[in-house]
Amino acid sequence: MKKVLVLIASVLCFCGCSSTMQKTTDPSCITIEKKAGTNEVDYVAVCVTAKTTDQQLLEIRKKIIQHTKIRFTNFDVIRGNNGDIYFLSMAIDCRDGYSGEFSHSFEPGDTSVQGFVRYYRKNTYNKPFVFGDISDVPAYQQKQTQSSTTQN
């Protein structure tokens, strides 16, 4: 009986740890894809919602610096008492002629996705750089569909 209880406790602990890891390394916060067989970046998407954590924001900044030439020239976040992001301001410089800046106030119940998508190759959307509300950007929606399909 003691072994069964230890086994159950171990499984519950592992499940709790893996769900915590999933929350802190949410793959939907940043996606960087490289061209097949090269080290060249092909696609970058940064996605921030009202529920994005500070740890996720730090991960975004680290990966952008490590894997791309893109730099944030401004990145401000104001959080409310409940921990949600109330205000986001972001300025992006892709260092290849594309740059942009936006700000967004997350109202209660706002589920929009703010950020940017940088496509380095020709795509069906015909916009290599989109920033601000990217919830309706076809390239972003396609990537989200693909990542949710591979995660399940």
Kindly list the characteristics that best describe this protein.
32% strand, 34% helix, alpha+beta, three-stranded antiparallel beta sheet, single chain, four-stranded antiparallel beta sheet, 152 residues, globular, disordered N terminus
Largest sheet: 4 strands, antiparallel
- Separation, N- and C-terminal Cα atoms: 34 Å
Strand order of the largest sheet: 1-2-6-7
Please provide the count of β strands. Answer: 7
Number of domains: 1
Give me the strand/helix succession.
Answer: HEEHEEEEEH
Principal-axis shape equals globular
SS-based class: alpha+beta
Mean pLDDT: 78
Which spans of ≥5 residues are poorly predicted at pLDDT below 50?
Answer: 2-27
Rg, rounded, reads 18 Å
Helix content: 25-40%
Query: Helix tally?
Result: 3
* Binned strand content: 25-35%
Could you walk me through the main structural features you see in this protein, from its secondary elements to its overall organization?
With 152 residues, the protein is α+β, with helices and mostly antiparallel strands. The protein has one domain. The chain is built from three helices and seven strands. A four-stranded antiparallel sheet has the order 1-2-6-7, sandwiched between helices. A three-stranded antiparallel sheet has the order 3-4-5, with helices on one face. Strand 3 (71-79) and strand 4 form a beta hairpin. It starts with a helix and ends with a helix.
